[in-house]
Amino acid sequence: MPSSHPIFQHSRNKKTGSRGSRKLPYMLLLCICCVASYYLGMVSNWITSQEDLTASHSAVLSADTKMSVQIEKLNDEIKRLKSARIETPARSCPECVVCSKCPTCPTTTATTGNTGTDTAASPTSSAKPLAGSWVSQGVVSTDSLIDGDIGFSLGIPPFYMQTAKQKIDSALVLHHRAPKSASISNPNSLDDCEEVDVVITKRDSPGHCLVVMEHYQSYTLHRYMRLNRNAEKGGDNKASLDKNFEKVGRGRSTDGSDQFKSPDIATQKKHWKHLVQYFESYEEVSAELDAKLKKIVDVNNDVIVMVANAGMIELLANFVCSARSRNLDISNIIVFATDDVSREVVDGLGLTSFDGSRSFPTPPEEEARAYGDQTFQKMMYVKVVSVHMALSLGYNVLFQDVDITWQEHPLAWLRNNQATSGDDFDAYFEDDGARSLRYAPWSANSGFYYLKFNRRTSYLMTNLLYESDNILVSHSHQQALSSVLNDHSSQYGLSLKVLSREQFTGGKSFHHDSPFMLSWMKGEVSPVIFHMCWTLNKDDKLKYMQQMGEWFLKEGGDNDYVRKMGKKAGEVCSLEPVITCHFSDKPSAEVAKCSDSPRKDKNGKIFWN
User: Which stretches are tagged as biased composition: Basic residues (predicted)?
Assistant: First the structure.
């Protein structure tokens, strides 16, 4: 403010004492105003802060309320999804196949159609979440896995409960997370699966558990059993809960028996000698075989391999005669004849014979007296060698035993079936019919099978040759083959299919399926082939085939007669079946109805009653 202002001029004109006394009230008033202003500001700030705090608190309370509602909704949704995951598979199947939380059905039912005793669901039971990274479980039809309706076919035959003769209808499926989504669209399908690992395990066995462990992937089943596997001979080696777990192989049963024993060193050395004989002669013998196969192979690169000795020669003759009576082409057959007598008869029947005796120990001329005897084992080894050699030369091979007759040509049927169904398997096998542990899971019959030549099938037969000492231990070509099939299916992706028993019929149906056999004898159905397996010895085979109309040798055409005919063996053929009754309780042709014949089995039921 400029010094010329009237106030300043006025104050300068006053005396000194008067100036000090007049200034005091002014300063006091100024201080009071400052203090009042300060406290008024403090009060104003406090009021403002309280309003802000109240507003903020209200906002927080509002947000908390909204969040609580959202959390409650999420919890309800989680409960709903858990309930849906547990209960949906149960609702989707008629008898609650996967039933962890289902009040109207038993908790232990694993498959539909189960007639066994089931444990009722406990009212207090609660479902446990799936372990590991499994997110869902469901069920699929076993028929779809076998028939291929699900996208692939396991190729195995159906399995029926031995007691109730009831088929197992469904299989459990565990799902990992879907590849492109966190959820599974349908747990009762494989629609969300890029890879499927199938575990085929035993059915309804008390005390049996299955552990599915997420780890470094293994494609082999690991078995443990509570028993003493090193028990002394005659000791207690049965499974029981009071024993410790021990590692066991696929052939071990709870009764203590072991159907897959390792060959001992003596058996191995014996087998080594056989292999040395085979491989030392292979180049020379296989060249001779190839020269003959080139003359008979058909346009599809197929050859048919058979093995015969003098003791079984009339069965071979019957096969030839039956095929010719039905106008079926057998020109691409080669017979590994193991002795001079059988080679002469084979030539007399108009087939191509082959002497491969330099490649294997010479079997006896007589027939096997029983399944698994020494003659049987030696002939089984020849069957391995013959198929291996033909397959190694690049041919597709149909192998069959001599106790077979054709109703139609099996190779033509297989080609037509592949064309219509789209089947494209590496190998096809007759269904043996047995459902025993040692043949699981395919029950492939080693007496009739077809192998397409490729790397997988050729190496299959090479490994079977390498492991033929298992034939010596188990007395079974079929058991050794079953073991190798399992290994090669898993390790190399070998694909195989077991053919229907209604179309490729064997001894199991003959002895244990009277309704089917009756339909056949009446002409209502007709299989592609018939294989007289499941029969104790050759004498019984002949009698059964004679009375069912599958015998085509003239009367008196027994083994001795066929041998004597030699180069003229073709003259033993009859254009019509020669029917002779033997047993009333075994299948017989309708024109004969052997009801007046004696029973074969003590309590056998008359077939035509």
Answer: 11-20
